[in-house]
């Protein structure tokens, strides 16, 4: 009887290998040959799941976004208002090794998106989904009396997204300056200004 293969599980396993390679060897090591070797596959077998390196990186970036949202959904506490907004921010920020690896992959994806309308559109879609969620949490915070009326919810969301993406870059490129403590202090200051 032929062996039954869970193809979705294999794809997740390959994405996990990509993560490990990025964390241990750097993004330059992520070639189809190296991924196949690290996963214990023949190079041709990897192509059954992903046609090329580009497809693996797209899947890995999708995984980052999904993982961030899943962690935020599973976090303890209230997911509404400022508490919910803070929970999402904490899952985006590169505060530990896993989220730092996510940031490394995100930066690599951004660099590729500069020359790929498909990747740029994918990234814009992810950012828009976060913008919608952040806007909803801010609106809840206003309606719940946690903060006063905002002249522009959209402008506050744009500021927050810019800060979070900047922290991802700084966490990767300037880890001595962008320590978890300094990142959290910056987030706390942002929330203090919201509360007035």
From TrEMBL:
DNA-binding region(s) from the entry: 31-50
Annotated ranges, domain HTH tetR-type: 8-68
Protein name: TetR family transcriptional regulator
InterPro entries linked: BetI_C (IPR039538), Homeodomain-like_sf (IPR009057), HTH-type_TetR-like_transc_reg (IPR050109), HTH_TetR (IPR001647), Tet_transcr_reg_TetR-rel_C_sf (IPR036271)
Coiled-coil stretches: none
Keyword annotations from UniProtKB, A to Z: DNA-binding, Repressor, Transcription, Transcription regulation
GO molecular function, one term: DNA-binding transcription factor activity
Top-level division of the source organism's lineage: Bacteria
PROSITE patterns recorded: HTH_TETR_2
PANTHER family: HTH-TYPE TRANSCRIPTIONAL REGULATOR BETI, HTH-TYPE TRANSCRIPTIONAL REGULATOR RUTR
Organism this protein belongs to: Amycolatopsis iheyensis
């Amino acid at each position: 009887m032929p062996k039954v293969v869970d193809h979705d599980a294999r794809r997740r396993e390959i994405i996990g290998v990509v993560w490990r390679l990025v964390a241990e060897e750097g993004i330059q090591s992520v070639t189809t040959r190296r991924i196949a070797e690290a996963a214990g596959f023949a190079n041709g077998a990897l192509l059954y799941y992903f046609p090329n390196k580009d497809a693996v990186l797209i899947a890995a970036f999708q995984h980052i976004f999904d993982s961030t949202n899943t962690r935020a959904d599973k976090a303890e506490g209230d997911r509404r208002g400022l508490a919910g907004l803070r929970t999402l921010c904490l899952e985006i920020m590169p505060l530990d090794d896993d989220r730092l690896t996510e940031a490394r992959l995100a930066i690599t994806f951004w660099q590729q998106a500069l020359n790929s309308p498909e990747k740029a559109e994918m990234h814009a879609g992810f950012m828009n989904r976060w913008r919608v969620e952040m806007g909803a949490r801010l609106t809840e915070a206003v309606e719940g009396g946690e903060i006063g009326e905002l002249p522009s919810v959209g402008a506050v969301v744009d500021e927050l997204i810019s800060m979070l993406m900047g922290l991802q870059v700084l966490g990767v490129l300037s880890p001595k300056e962008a320590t978890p403590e300094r990142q959290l202090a910056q987030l706390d200051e942002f929330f203090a200004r919201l509360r007035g």
